Amino acid sequence: MPTHAETKRLPYTPEQMFDLVADVRRYPEFLPWCVGAQVVSRTEGELIADLTIGFKMFRETFRSRVTLERPEHVHVEYLTGPFRYLNNHWNFTAVPGGSEVRFFVDFEFRSRLLQAVIGTVFNEAVRLMVRAFERRAMALYGRDRPGAKLTARPNPGPG
Predict the structure, then answer these.
(1) Cα–Cα distance between 67 and 72 in angstroms, integer?
(2) What is the number of structural domains in the chain?
(3) Domain assignment of residue 79, yes or no
(4) Phi, psi at 66, each rounded to 5°
(5) Which InterPro entries match (predicted)?
């Protein structure tokens, strides 16, 4: 039920952003509430990963299939865990001075209690997570390049 989509223009190449998002095992180093990550299997175009999310008194692990279409798309398909469903997409498009990053997430927890707790802070939590990816890009690839602007625009969906 909670859905969030946004588009950002960042001063990094689509390849850099793709590599950052595809490096799931490093998520606990920078992503809020991600307390564990394990890549179960990996091929050139796909990985299966377990992520453990900790929020207040809750701690849940879920498994996803992550399809990697270098350098423009990362798609997350939910396999098992606490959700009824989870849809997550990243798109990276080259633009002058960097890339346009489109992010979409839509999910619903099986537990009504967990859904109620997360639902109250969902939008802010997702914004914090997206900003964590931006900060990670800055740490890995450096600050804004001269002339590049960071901008955010609302995005109506994954299209």
Answers:
(1) 11
(2) 1
(3) yes
(4) -110, 115
(5) COQ10-like, COQ10_START, START-like_dom_sf
